[in-house]
Amino acid sequence: MKYLKLLSAVLLFALPAKTQKLVYHHTFAPTEGWVNRYEKPYRDDICLNGYWDFQPVDLPAEFVHGKGEAPALPMPQQNAWETTRIKIPSPWNINDFAYSDLEGPDHRNYPSYPSTWNQVKMAWMRKVVEVPSNWQSKQITLHFEAVAGETVVLVNGKEVGRNFDLFLPFELDVTDIVEPGQQAEILVGVRSQWLFEDESTVGRRIIPAGSMWGNVINGIWQDVYLVATPKVLVKDIFAKPLLSKGLLELEVTLENHTSKRAKIELSGQVREWLNHTGTDVDNAPVPNWSLGQETLTCASVAVVDANSQTTQTIQIPVDDGTLRSWTPEQPNLYALLLTMKQGKQLLDIKYLRFGWREWTFDGMQLCLNGRPYSLKSDSWHFMGIPQLTRRYAWAWYQAIKGMNGNAVRLHAQVYPRLYMEMADEMGICVLDETANWASDGGPKLDSELFFAHSRQHLRRLVERDRNYPSVFGWSISNENKPVILYVFKRPDLLPRQKEEWGVWRDIVRTADPTRPWISSDGEDDGDGMLPVTVGHYGDDLAMHHWQQIGKPWGIGETGMCYYGTPEQVAKRNGQRAYESAEGRMEGLANECYHLIKNMRVMGAAYSTVFNMVWYALQPLPLGKRDVTKAPTMTDGVFFGPYVEGLPGVQPERIGPYCTTLNPGYDPHLPLYKPWPLYAALRAANAHPQSAWSAYADVDTLAYMHPQSDMPITPRAVYYVGSVDSSLKQLLDAQGVVYAQKAAKSLVIIDASKPMPAAVVKQISQAADVWLWGITPETVKSYQPLLSTQNGRTLTLAFDSLRRSSFLPENRSWLSGLQNSDFYFCEVQQTDAAEYTMKGSFVDEGEVLLNACKTDWRSWNLRPEELKTAALLRSETECTATLPVFVKHGHIYVSTLVNFADSKKGFDTLSAILRHAGVKANKQTGELEYRNTKRSTDNLLLDPSVDTSKKTSN
Fold first, then answer.
1. Count of C-beta atoms within a 10 Å radius of residue 574
2. Residues 4, 287: contact at Cβ < 8 Å?
3. If I label 193, which of 269, 795, 889, 942 is the partner at 20 to 30 A Cα–Cα?
4. How many CB atoms lie under 10 A from the CB of residue 860?
5. pLDDT tens digit string along 51-108?
6. In what order do the strands lie in the sheet with 429-433?
7. Listed residue (456, 552, 582, 529) closest to 854, CA to CA
8. C-alpha to C-alpha distance for 919 and 927, rounded to whole angstroms
9. Cα 726 from chain centroid (whole Å)
């Protein structure tokens, strides 16, 4: 409780009003300490979170990345510590995560950190702590929840241990090195996993490093404790709830750190665990519980030899009705208090929370507590500081329940324990996944060193999480097989991977024999090695294949949510997909509704799309009132004063658009803001079967412009401009018939260049005049043409807006043309237009073509951590006018110029000219398309996305 009391000290903190910053007055990451209150006074801890000294270490000049040989880490220099101290826990390069020139989300969580830290690849951190004098008779350990990088720890100048895993906890015995009542110096040296990468063959990473977060961060990113325990203690308990046998089996690990043999007595009581958390958004995620009545007891004796460890099994019969079962609908929990005595002396108390539930298979069905149970899930990558709190987990699980879901796959890395703790309490079933994520082609799948690290990583994950009742299964890897086959193109590596799936399966079964679900996401059933089939990105035919394997099966990822471009999504909802982010989402809603519905009809034990929390919800502008401008460092949500020794991360700030969830930080925003996809998922996941959805059927014809039946009078083109211009070459390629006089012709002027007044006057009386490519620099010379019939001068001004997709109005020369005809984002990289128009010429004229407010280039083929926020911001920060093609009387003006160098653009120009009545001979030859379309193959191999996810389609 001491940490919870410490939290209250910051609740009333507020910044001065003149700063106009939004301050959240509750603790960002409400967390209990490492030692449970029922374990005291036999155990104790000191949270070492707080200010640490930081010393970057330069890489040797001769170091070459990718050789698989990391440079040695020299000892820190006495007087080289940075003046800025690092706030542990936090990666030292945190402000560089998902930054990319602030194109998308704002993850600048620690503005006080120097920007030079972002490039640091190895460093030292130092903390001096006083060891309590009353720890004289205790066993003292250093506990790290997670350190990213190869880690060496020194205490009082002596090395006490090393660790090379980015996500999992480790403990180091410092009993013989520290002196109770004295200060101890702790040095932690970290070398980034990047330094160890080996690019000599396929892949590069020699350890499971996860995805976006793990690939980037360096340093201590979860809590650190100095822990005191008895010399003879209960080291660990594995509770096995065997409902089918009416048995609670306890596997108890005992340790003796004394020089004498210890005969001990164990006695335990099981009590109700009662949740008293609040119901409002600020208090619901905050731990608040007590223990209720006793329901079971047990007793046992054991002998532990000197300086050794032993395991004792205790079996407790459980009669029907004694314990209430854990289910997502009723997540009942219990606490075991296991007491250790030696004679009359009470030595230790160990606390363990568990749930009375059992997962089994019945043929192809997954069963919970003996009854078939279907899982409707979500999944997502770990996205840093916003997700390092129970508040995020609570909000995410609320959104899952809101879409009629009951499960989550913690994807692509090992998540902090808080996710399992919240899932236990809220009733969410967890598929617990390793950091063995291959989708970017990163893991070195031809390396025995990688496989050795993977085995240790998996074992440590299972041992950490096997007591959480919410965990229903283990996902041992993600998309290794597709990467081997379609990215590495090395089918010869598959037999070795198949062998390793078997090894990983057996590691899980040894560490946890209670859960039959062992899967590898996107690998089917591991070529027969695994008891569960999980596929990725398949249609009904693929689902039928997975079903026919004859094992419990599911789909871990599917749908176009994360990669679908407007061109791809248009297959679901036609022209609407090109209009906006909302339009795209309506198409995805249609696709994903049917995917989920079909999975359920076909009997999938586990169903999901990829995904809800990042793609079905909008990125939120936390702490930002004016969304028309890019985020600044005064935007975002700020937090109270930094508190030394407080468990949990304490960011200085959370920036706009870094998350889709708002667990109370910004009172002006909802918990989440759904896209249409969310409503479709809610309907598809309805119980007992999928419900009606407004997105189930789409009338694509409703978004089509009817073909024009406007009578056309053929005419030639009178061209005004340089004969060497790109416009003239374009018209030549179109086979345009040229006139010798302006009268009765369509006058097309290259308005990207100014024109002499005499020429402008000469053509002012032409039937129709098209000013092609007018700019702010040239408009003045064409002002005589911009007037009404009675001679009133009209204004024409410009906004700067670079776009390559446009939305036509169904009128004049653009009648019958579609949004897709003016969508050039997938066929060219250049801007099709740089300016939009405004003024009385536009206001009183007819707009034929508008720039699309949505800049699809901020989405297509962009990294997942950037694209959702970047796309939304392209709309909200677009304050420019949109017209790029306007007609007023007989004058047509366009700023659209660079669009016809591709076949698609060339054909669109042909249609415009045809509707304008332009005579054309057989085209003399299409232009050489300088901006060619990126094919599906290019999309598959784009390094910014999970490359294998499209291979099933």
1. 21
2. yes
3. 942
4. 20
5. 999 999 999 999 999 999 999 999 999 999 999 999 999 999 999 998 888 889 999 9
6. 517-521, 471-478, 429-433, 407-410, 375-380, 606-607, 553-557, 533-536
7. 582
8. 19
9. 44
